[in-house]
Every structure is written in C-alpha cells, then in structure tokens.
Amino acid sequence: MQLDDLSRRLIERYQHQLPICTDPWQAMADELGCSAAEVLDCLRRLDEQGALSRVGPVFEHSRAGASTLVALAVPQSRLEQVAELVNRYPEVNHNYLREHDYNLWFVLTGPDRQSLERCLEDIQQTTGLAPLDLPMRRAYRIDLGFSLEATP
After folding, report:
1. What three-state secondary structure class fits 95?
2. Distance from first CA to last CA of the chain, Å, rounded?
3. pTM, entire model
4. Helices 24-32 & 5-14, crossing angle to 10 degrees?
5. Which of 6, 21, 45, 85 is the most exposed place for a label (fewest CB within 10 A)?
6. Using one digit for the tens of pLDDT, what is the confidence trace for 54-103?
7. Which family does it belong to (predicted)?
C-alpha cells in the first residue's frame, strides 16, 4: 500500500501520544498543517484500506477496572456465528482468529473481576463453549510503534 504524505506524517507522529484535549482532531491538524476534516478523512481512508486497527487510548487496565485474555476453541463451521455473538458484548475488544485449537481470542474489560466472571459465564451459556480465562499475571511493556521513515 502506498501512503500519501499526510497519512505517513499522521501515522508517524501519532502512533503514541494522541492529544488529550476537547478537540484532538483540530490539535492534530494544527500540528500537521492541515484541517481537522483532512485528518478525519485521512483516518477514514486508512481504516477503509485496512491500515488502521483502531484510534484511541490504551489504558492501564488495573487502574481502569479489570481485564483478561480469553480463548475459545470454536469449530470451524461455527466460527463466524460465535465471533458475531462474542462481538456483541461491550466488554469485548481485540477479537481475532488464531491457527490453533483455541482459535478465537479476545480481551474482556470491565469494572471488576466479578463482572468479567459473569460475562465469561454468559459467553459460555450463549455459545456452548468453555472460555479459557487467561488473566495477566505480569505486565511486559513493549513499544508497538513502527517508524515509517526509510532506514539506511
């Protein structure tokens, strides 16, 4: 995929530290020398092209409630149906497919551990599949940013 100049600058500058203010799109536009509409149009194009997975904050889950990684072993014939059911829960994010017996993985986030347990029970009842609950024991911080600048 070929990125235009604004797309490249937007991705390079805002992989980390989005502006926290009442109008982040305008703050980004001011810094990039364009309009807020151009920033939003650029983000829409990148999303439509599959170049973005999300735009938003990453929270320290232990400060904002509770979360857990969950895996389901879904028969291939039910994969789309189960993914659709799981995606209906507002607590679910980062839902993705893996090549493994446990092939549907997602993160549950809620106000406390009890709410996650209720959600896990409901997912099991709704899908008929037993969720594998994998709460984080220790955080490993990694930088998920990638430079788009040419390197020698």
Report:
1. strand
2. 21
3. 0.63
4. 120
5. 21
6. 787 666 666 778 889 999 999 999 999 999 999 999 999 878 899 999 99
7. Belongs to the Ahb/Nir family.
